[in-house]
Write a structure and sequence with these properties.
Elements (H helix, E strand, L loop, with lengths): L20 H10 L4 H18 L4 H4 L4 H13 L4 H20 L31 H9 L6 H16 L3 H5 L15 E7 L2 E7 L5 E5 L2 H13 L12 E3 L5 E6 L2 H14 L8 H14 L4 H8 L4 H15 L9
Antiparallel strand pairs: 1-2, 2-3, 4-5
Helix pairs in contact: 2-5, 7-9, 7-11, 11-12, 11-13, 12-13
């Protein structure tokens, strides 16, 4: 229901006035800049409707603190992680805050306010699985470099492992700078600066960061471009789908699910039994940098984190084992 609203254009609803629940929900979802955030908002509100068995959209607007507590408790009972519970409750809070700001709701307490409906604390230590150096090598070795699929997959893995790219940053990469770069919410492009090959990356909140690109990544991307019959001036999506017969499909960009499947398949072929996701590659890059002694603030800039406390989740994981106080005890 709600998750289908993100495909509807507000202009396609001329008969509905501002008080319509559909228009208000759609307006809230569309107020997010990033497509990923819009999708997440739609899914979170749909989850709320499903778990609370609300008969219609109208009843969503009558939520009370007791309803919010019941929703939180049902998620916990169903085994949702603290991070998931926290994110969904945050969506509910921001939804009612948005309604109030637009004048669509009477000013008053937010039914999902954390002062009334506290959420579980999220561990400061990242729970995402990371790869060892040996596992990274095994993962890369699964790519058959005599095929376009193998060349593409190796380029994707190297980009994620060397540059800590988020999935939406990967999917929106181009080789040359696109003409509409200033208006793009996420992505990246290659360039040159003072003799270095560079990768300009746009992440969350349209924050840009620039990385130097090592030869192994540059060569992998260029070889993939050559095999897919494109040159370095191409401003279309860098990563394209590959047909079952092994041919690159021009003008058909990869989707988020394609990246998920690619990583799962390569992890399986590498004989890695743990649950490794595309985000694990980003975590692996950050953790390896910290292991090598790179300053925390430099890793923050590398990853595009707005707040260093986010980056510290990687550091806590290392310190919890490597610098555990138990090693200081000598009885």
């Amino acid at each position: 229901m709600i998750d289908q609203l993100i495909t509807i254009d507000c202009d396609a609803l001329p008969s509905l006035h501002d008080q319509s629940p559909i228009v208000q929900i759609l307006s809230y979802i569309r107020s997010a800049r990033a497509e990923r955030t819009r999708v997440a908002r739609a899914r979170d509100l749909q989850d709320l409707l499903n778990r609370m068995s609300y008969p219609g959209l109208e009843t969503l607007f009558d939520m009370t603190p007791e309803d919010a507590m019941a929703y939180r408790d049902r998620m916990i009972e169903d085994g949702c992680s603290a991070a998931t519970v926290g994110r969904r409750m945050s969506t509910v809070r921001s939804f009612f805050k948005y309604l109030t700001a637009r004048g669509w709701r009477e000013p008053g307490p937010n039914p999902a306010d954390t002062a009334v409906v506290p959420v579980p604390r999220v561990s400061k230590e990242s729970q995402t699985e990371i790869l060892s150096v040996d596992e990274v090598r095994r993962l890369l070795a699964t790519c058959d470099l005599s095929t376009i699929r193998g060349l593409r997959d190796r380029a994707i893995l190297l980009l994620a492992l060397h540059h800590g790219l988020r999935k939406d940053e990967l999917l929106n990469l181009t080789h040359a700078r696109p003409s509409d770069w200033s208006s793009r919410p996420a992505g990246g492009f290659f360039g040159e600066e003072r003799g270095h090959v560079t990768l300009t990356i746009r992440g969350k909140a349209q924050r840009d960061r620039i990385h130097g690109v090592v030869p192994s990544v540059t060569d992998s991307v260029r070889t993939y471009l050559d095999w897919s019959s494109r040159d370095e001036t191409d401003t279309g999506p860098l990563l394209l789908k590959v047909s079952r017969s092994g041919d690159s499909l021009p003008d058909i960009p990869m989707k988020p699910g394609d990246i998920d499947y690619l990583v799962r398949r390569r992890v399986r072929d590498a004989g890695i039994k743990r649950r490794i996701s595309p985000h694990s590659l980003r975590h692996s890059a950050a953790t390896r940098l910290l292991e090598c002694g790179v300053e925390l603030t430099a890793v923050q800039s590398f990853l595009g984190h707005a707040n260093v406390t986010t980056t510290m989740t990687y550091l806590h994981r290392l310190q919890s084992i490597d610098e555990n106080p138990s090693y200081r005890l000598a009885w």
